Amino acid sequence: MPRPTRFARLLFSLIFVWLLALPARAETMRLALHAHLYSIDPVITMEYITRSHGYLVYDTLFALDENLEPQPQMVSDWSVSEDQLTWSFTLRPGQQWHDGTPVTAEDCVASLLRWGARDAQGWLLMSNTSAIRATAPDSFTITLRRPYPRMLEHLAKSSLNVPFMMPRRIAETGPFQPITDATGSGPYRFVAAEWVPGEIAVYEKNETYVPRQDPPSFAAGAKTAHFDRIELVAYSDPREALQALASDEVQLVETPSMPELALLPPDSDIKTVVFDPTGNFGTAIFNHQMPPFDNPGIRRAVLIAMGQTSYLSAAISDRAYWSPCLSIYPCHTTYSHVVSAPYYMRGDLQLAAKALAEAGYSGAPVVVVDPVDSPVLSGFTRVTVDLLGQLGMNVVHKPMSWRELRDAVAQRTGEPSQVWNMFHTWWTADDLSDPMHILFSGDPRLGWIGWPDDPELEALRAQFVLSEDEAARKALALRIQDKIVQNGNFAVLGQFIQPLALRSSLGGLQGPFPLYYQLAPADQ
User: Beta strand 252-253 with 28-32: parallel, antiparallel or unpaired?
Assistant: First the structure.
């Protein structure tokens, strides 16, 4: 075989150098989540899609590890005084916002104050705080009125609402005014110019992010962006979403339809993953501010008619993925306890009709909003509409998209066209394992949609958060459950598992819910 000429060797060398100089092909992950991103403000928005957005863009002072223990994240060191009243925090060096400015203690103070004005746990922390101030560019203190045993637990809160840190100029936005700038310090940056609400949200790798040296563990430890670009989309048709996954148009589907999953060929390059066997918790929410559900007797009557098996079998086709759970705290969690009230979620139409008449129901319309683009929630809704009709209630069934429902249920009262009385949703079960979750609130100002008004319930929750005795906490959790059941605050529809479907080439995700900055090639 003839040897290459000197000219040929030189040409090959030049071509090789030229190829090395070419920019690497950007690796993009396209993820089909359960909803579109319409709000970028994780402090005032109670939506899981905005939480997913937040974890891509922001970082937190502390974070929960896989054992649900708080670990430092943006903080390097912290200490607490002997009297437990002064907590001091120092930020780790090298952190900066996506706009290139350094992360400072003043940014963190402003972020905590805004979070504390909206989040129930944050509000309790701030109500026990006499001062929070920056003491140096990288240090701040929280001075308490009395010891607060759950300080680190609340600063490491992993779900709704997460105390994400933002630049001061953004964090000083009023707590009831949505932010419009998603500048953070996390492993990905939000590409606002490419965001089309209802279509796509785009994130690019933050090349300046300095991860911790600890191994990743749930929301704690090192955050390493393995892909150059992440795109979040959503499909109203679950079959279309799985078709996109099968053709590699998307690499992950967050809430695949069970019947559609069963149709995939057995040799498909798609795997399903269950992150948390505790699963999800279905709920039906009453509007306490509007007739007829401003009457607790009418709420209790409806609860008598509702049976969990009917709801779960209608919404989750595969019996292996659901189970009844008669507790306001999900089964297999610390404070779970079977509701003793004989009227709660018993599926007794005859007894319910009698209770409804005794409560004085006189034909007021019951507007039930139905997110038809969410198969699980629409399945729940169909059962309720049928039950209320059988009870003789004046049911108004309003089909709409999840986005329309999201906007509708934010309205407490209003014009007749804006009124709603009932809707259905689900939560990650671990979110509801603690009485401090916003769903259990009795404060109509800081509480969640539905807006129960129960000062006694709020007093019990305040006692719970300040108690350091676990036996006392369990007793308080049971009293809180009894109060919520007695008042008919909401319905518990049961517990179910929602697997996630993704390409076999992907890995890295950890439970109890997926954090998409963790995505990596399966062999890493």
Answer: parallel
pLDDT tens-digit series, residues 110-163: 999 999 998 888 988 999 999 999 999 999 999 999 999 899 999 999 988 999
Report the SS3 class of residue 169: helix
Please check whether residue 398 is in contact with residue 369, taking contact to mean a CB–CB distance below 8 angstroms: yes
CB 230 within 8 Å of CB 519 = yes
Query: For the chain, how many residues are written?
Result: 524
- Domains: count for the chain: 1
pLDDT at 8: 42
The CA distance from 313 to 333, in Å, is: 23
**Sign, Cα dihedral of 9, 15, 18, 20:** negative
Neighbouring-strand partners of residue 503: 270
Residue 87 has pLDDT above 80, yes or no: yes
- Tell me which residue of 218, 230, 223 sits closest to 189, measured CA to CA: 230
For residue 51, the tally of other CB atoms under 10 A from its CB is 21
pLDDT at res. 102 = 98
Classify residue 480: in a domain, yes or no. yes
Structural domain for 491, as ranges:
280-496
Q: Over the stretch 154-208, which tens digit does the pLDDT of each residue have? A: 999 998 899 999 999 999 999 999 999 999 999 999 999 999 998 999 999 999 9
- Tokens for 284? 């039906």
- Identify whether 374 is part of a domain: yes
Q: Is residue 413 in a domain? A: yes
Over pLDDT 70: what percentage of the chain?
94
Tracing tokens 């007793």 back to the chain, one arrives at: 475
Residue 370, domain member (yes or no): yes
Q: Reply yes or no: is the peptide bond before residue 416 cis, omega within 30 of 0.
A: no
Give the pair of three-digit tokens for residue 274.
Answer: 């269950």
CATH number of 435's domain: 3.10.105.10
- Identify the pLDDT of residue 445: 84
At 41, which amino acid appears? D
Which pLDDT score, from 0 to 100, does residue 18 have?
35
Paired with 201 in beta bridges are: 232
pLDDT category of residue 336 using cuts at 50, 70 and 90: very high
Q: In angstroms, rounded to a whole number, what is the distance separating the alpha carbons of residues 498 and 514?
A: 12
Task: For strands 86-91 and 75-80, give the pairing.
Answer: antiparallel
Task: Name the 3-class secondary structure at 441.
Answer: coil
Choose among 516, 518, 506, 522: nearest CA to 215. Answer: 518
Residue 4 has pLDDT above 50, yes or no: no
DSSP for 496-513, written as a single string: E---EEEETTEE---SSS
Q: What is d(CA 25, CA 261) in angstroms, rounded to the nearest whole number?
A: 32
